[in-house]
């Protein structure tokens, strides 16, 4: 009887407020559409965009939410006059990110911290990170040579753990850093788990892993203060904002926790899709290899040299448009009632921007299900509508756009150079269907046969 009353109330609510609100559904009583989102977050936004259009209502994590998809809607969602990220995200997300970091802040404090964080994402900073990327890549490439055949995703996770640890704690590639990756993996599972804190369930284990990462960061901060290093943590310790302020150790540990969260997934997902794409498109691989042979045939790399790799940059951009990496932004909150496309946007409701779906609109990106690096030729890229290419959140650099956007491009170029200069690989029979993880990946782990590139002049016998 109680369930029947709830359903009747829920259906009545749907019919009463549907006239001036965006189309959509509140889903089931109490839980809304949260289960559908958790089951497949990319499909959730894709299906509702196809059914309702660029703006629709839903009910997630106990709150009515309006989703904005497409350049015009996404740009509206980024308007800080109407939307804020302050106290906008569900409590489990806030708790996992230790309550206070860039995705959970807004206003003057967000801008202050963001400008400090951006000091670690400049071309000058990248020149300090490139040797770390090369050192880490070389460590694993030599190991893969010996393996010959293997599943690449577990290996890329190890590489990502080692590189993330190198950037944020000064660690070296190998088992110790790979163990940090296992902690991050457990931490990430908390974002799609039932938010009940028990020591033995996924959410409880995620909170324990969060605390382990914070303890690791605390230790690294102390070590870096005693012996300065030129990694990302070293730069963040001395970076200053426009007002001359720095991050306190408490603020720094939380921001580095957020960067651990973003970097680990961003690194292994990007490299997975780079390797998959080049294997599936021999013509793209050959053209990229020719560019690498021309501009980076050997020797250590630097940021200025990477700028010559225009085609590899286009590949890096198209990877993030084509594949379902980020489904949506962090949540926002409607600060004051407004209107969009003649729909009422009520104060106090949640809001979210659809990322991957926005980049698959045929009117903006013709043949969106086709992988085409040429989309990002300079003149074509410049002509795209504002906030149509939003893999890292869109908007200005000092807004809620991910600070690591350019670093991912550097990473793809550096690892791509080493792969294309020295190695070849081919896919073996397997299931390449993507799973339903927070960041979807091929179900069988991307199995490859890996070896020395036969046409590499350094490998030829005279």
Task: Give me the secondary-structure topology.
Layout: H1 2-16, H2 34-39, H3 41-52, E1 55-60, E2 63-68, H4 71-77, E3 83-84, H5 91-96, H6 107-118, H7 123-147, E4 149-151, H8 152-169, H9 175-189, H10 202-226, H11 232-238, H12 249-280, H13 282-295, H14 303-306, H15 310-322, E5 332-334, E6 338-340, E7 343-345, E8 350-353, H16 378-382, H17 405-422, E9 423-427, E10 447-452
Helix pairs in contact: 7-8, 7-17, 8-9, 8-12, 9-10, 10-12, 12-13, 12-15, 12-17, 15-17
Descriptive labels:
5-stranded mixed beta sheet; alpha+beta; transmembrane; 10 strands; 462 residues; Cytochrome p450
Any overview of this molecule?
- The chain crosses the membrane at residues 256-279.
- The chain has helices at residues 2-16, 34-39, 41-52, 71-77, 91-96, 107-118, 123-147, 152-169, 175-189, 202-226, 232-238, 249-280, 282-295, 303-306, 310-322, 378-382, 405-422, and strands spanning 55-60, 63-68, 83-84, 149-151, 332-334, 338-340, 343-345, 350-353, 423-427, 447-452.
- With 462 residues, it is α+β, with helices and mostly antiparallel strands.
- The protein has a single domain, classed as Cytochrome p450 (Orthogonal Bundle), CATH 1.10.630.10.
- The radius of gyration is 23 Å and the shape is globular.
- The relative contact order is 0.15.
